[in-house]
Amino acid sequence: MGNKSIKISAPGSVSNVGPGFDIMGFALDSPVDEVVLRLNSKGKVVITKITGDGGKIPYDVKKNTATVALISMMKKLNAGFGVDVEVRKKIGLGSGLGSSAASAVASVYGLNELLDQPFTKDELIEFAMDGEAVASGSYHADNVAPCLYGGFIIIKSYNPLDIIRIKAPSDLWCAVVHPQFEIKTSEARKILPKEISLKKAISQWGNVAGLVAGLTTSNYKLIGRSIKDEIIEPVRAKLIKGYDQIKNSAMENGALGCSISGSGPSIFALCDSQITAVKVARSMRTAVTKTGHHSKIYVSQVNEVGPRII
Ligand code: HSE
């Protein structure tokens, strides 16, 4: 086995994208997580080092999203070797930017490359979802899929898994503000309604369809008026202090549409140029500062690449 090693970066992502709870997401150019893998002959997966997490991520390989994904993959391979894993967290934990998904994807993508690609991406995604599930308490692919495939993703079905990748308009930019506090996805899922009215479902279907049509025809106005979520956003907005003011600041500064990224607290806004996205990101940061929180901002196009060997 030697000491073969690889270093991978995997991108953060915005999931839900307004109306598409659990079925839509896109990858960002930044932030990214990094994972270093080194094959070992101990026959075990071992986490050797974790940085950037403030000591919060478990070293227990059965609880860490990166290693749960890796172990799931190695079981399928009947692997007789082990892997030393170093996780470098750069995507905030509990940020709503697909932090756990990125570590899981980086691990399985990296091992697949080290072993000369025994699996396709369509197979790797299942392992990455096992990793994501241990962190978030549920099987959802709207962060792992964009992170692994890159681009803008629609999950048409979970059973069987049916993932569609669409090309986002080339001038679409995303502004993200990440207020510096954590929301656990598992907690943010517990507060959601178990049932919804037909009236709300119809409105949500309309917005999902409008968003897809807008993206595929580069109709920015349609994209903007389809970033509407009548079901999840009103419930989760209560977890984010000053949410309405932050969203208003994005819209007043030219955003096409704005909503919660994943389970929050990050908030994303789609824009039709880089200049507007920078302005919108800064305005959202100012609005977050008024709530008493520090924040980080990111401005990115849709990342069409996904994980990279670095
Ligand atoms: N779709 C998931 C949710 C994403 O909103 O709970 C979590 O990152």
Instruction: Report the structural category.
Output: alpha+beta
How many E strands? Answer: 11
Proper CATH architecture of the largest domain = 2-Layer Sandwich
CATH topology (fold) name of the largest domain: Ribosomal Protein S5, domain 2
Percent helix, as a range, is 25-40%
Helix-strand string: EEEHEHHHEEEHHHHHEEHEE
Question: Largest sheet, if any?
Answer: 7 strands, mixed
Hetero groups in this structure are: L-homoserine
Described by the principal axes of the CA atoms, the overall outline is globular
What's the gyration radius in Å?
19 Å
Give the low-confidence spans.
none
What does this structure look like?
The chain has 310 residues and is an alpha+beta fold. The chain folds into 2 domains: 5-166 and 305-309, Ribosomal Protein S5, domain 2 (2-Layer Sandwich), CATH 3.30.230.10; 173-301, GHMP kinase, C-terminal domain (Alpha-Beta Plaits, 2-Layer Sandwich), CATH 3.30.70.890. Helix content is 37%, strand content 26%. The chain has 10 helices and 11 strands. It has helices spanning 65-77, 99-114, 121-136, 144-149, 185-190, 198-216, 220-226, 233-236, 243-252, 274-290; strands at residues 5-15, 24-40, 45-51, 82-88, 152-158, 161-166, 173-179, 257-260, 267-271, 295-301, 308-309. Strands 1, 2, 3, 4, 5, 6 and 11 form a 7-stranded mixed sheet that branches. It has a 4-stranded antiparallel sheet with strand order 8-9-7-10. A hairpin with a 2-residue loop joins strand 5 and strand 6 (161-166). The structure holds L-homoserine (HSE). Residues 15-16, 21-22, 136, 140, 142-143, 185, 188-189, 262-263 line the site of L-homoserine. L-homoserine binds next to helix 5.
